[in-house]
Amino acid sequence: MPNWLRTLSLRNKLVLTILICLVLPSLVSMNVSSLLTRDAVRSQVADNSQESMRIVNQIVNGQMKNMLYVMNFIQFDEDLQPSIRELGRANDLTDKGDVLAYKQTIIKRITTVINSFGNLHVTVLLPNGEYVASYSTFAFNPNEFLQKSWFSDVEMASGYNVKWIGAEPNYSHATNQPYLLAAAKPLRINGLTYGYVVVGMELSTIQQLFDQYKNNESMVIVDGEGRILVDKDSTTIGHPFPYYDQLPAEDGSSFVKVDGEDYILLSSHVTPEWKLVNMSPYKSAAQKIESFRKTDFLIQLFFLILFAIVLLYMVRTLTKPIARLVQTVVRIESGQLSERSNINGGDEVGRLGYVFDRMIDRIEWMLEENRREQELKRKAELAMLQAQINPHFLFNVLNSIRLKIMMKGDSENAELISSLSSLLRMTINRNNEYISLHEEIEINEHYIRLLNSRHGDRVQLQISAASDTLLFEIPRFLLQPLIENAYIHGLKSKGGEITIASRICEDGRLQVEVRDSGVGMPPERLAALRNHLDIVPAHQSEETSSPSLSGIGLHNVFERLRLIYGHRFDYEIESGPDQGTQIVLRFPQLAGKEG
């Protein structure tokens, strides 16, 4: 199992499992459905596109049939045949009036037919160089058709077959279109050719039809060589259709890929030589089917999300009490014994929360009883030590001795008596367990003065207390055991320097430091001392063999602070060989307030 999965909570593991069980089958189902229905969708799209193209094909075929009808009409109309044959036999000896009459008869008859179509231009060519045209021949001589490369194919057309010429440059000035779609056939009777008919159709009708398609679709008419004959964009006429070689062999559909996108190609014959071709994006052609599938997918996704939300809500409701119980356990582990889960209910989790809260109540009560017993014990020890000699009697006697010595002019000894008197005054004051920091420092100044008078070596006491800490109250006789410990074990009862420093920490607690310039201790001795202060009861501490002035050893100082401030008290001891020792105490500013 991956490490990240192991670190997830029970709720997150349950949620992850649910999401996998919901989403994974849905994704697999949709992908399998897409694969199984892809061919069916493509076939359906091709059928739909073929049906749409069939309508266009009918219109285009209608235009082609109009061209055929006009050519067949000219060939087989009984009213036209005499005039055409007579005009074809005319020569220089024929009366010009008769020639004009023949032409007018032919034009009138042809115009009657093509007026109903409106977009055809008819030319009748005769072997003797005469011609008849339904358009103005002022700038174009129809006999130029005889010089075209395709005209030989017209002569070779057998029977009544038609030569579908393709896109020809516009020879009629009746329209501004650049091309006309042309077809031609020979006029024969009994196997003899007596003329030719050429029909040109304007492209506007078909182009308007093609123009109805979107810009990303294209519909064109191409010839047998793949050249474009009709397109909504006239600039492409005469150019090769780029995907002609991918057209299906027969009328039908095929698929090509252009720039990474699938296109559907449809083709159908409009003449034996010409094909109507439609090219449209598969995505657009399948829009309706894909829209249905998308709607179906969105419906499934909606219910999937709805079910997931309901399920996740139920999971959260069931696991929320467990998460709250875990958070409560973590806070209690950090020392906040007042925390409770407050979980109620008739199920297993509710009963577990209730029993857990009652268990913590019992533990807290037992700890409070133990703390109260220890505090009473400590106060009894202190009272017993202070009561060994009547302190008022000693204080009054010392003041009398001090006055007599001062009267004799011995101010140095009088000052020592004054320091001892001040020290005893703090000892006999049993009404207040806490004193200000500056008073505690003053007591230790008297203590150092007495210590220096007792021994020959001079101990210098340096005070580096921040001014904003001097009025804070601390437990009485807190620093004296530390000063005595620094003198005996650090300075080895010899001269040196002891420093008292204080400041306010970032978390608002008071920090008091006592450091000496003594011999220090090696790392193993320092580790043993830290362990000793953490686990050894007070009556077994090393200070009991050499009690301090207050009767409370170094270990008892730490025990008192733990009892008073609880988990909000901590300390540090740093030392090294020939680097001195530093003891740092941190505790709250308000005395007697436990965390």
TrEMBL record:
SMART domains: HAMP, HATPase_c. Its main location: membrane. GO terms for molecular function: kinase activity. The keyword Ligase does not apply. This is Sensor histidine kinase. It is found in: Cell membrane. InterPro entries: Bact_2-comp_sensor_kinase, dCache_1, HAMP_dom, HATPase_C_sf, HATPase_dom, Sig_transdc_His_kin_internal. The keyword Kinase applies. Residues 316-368 form the HAMP domain. SUPFAM superfamilies: ATPase domain of HSP90 chaperone/DNA topoisomerase II/histidine kinase (SSF55874), HAMP domain-like (SSF158472). It is a multi-pass membrane protein. The chain crosses the membrane at residues 297-315.
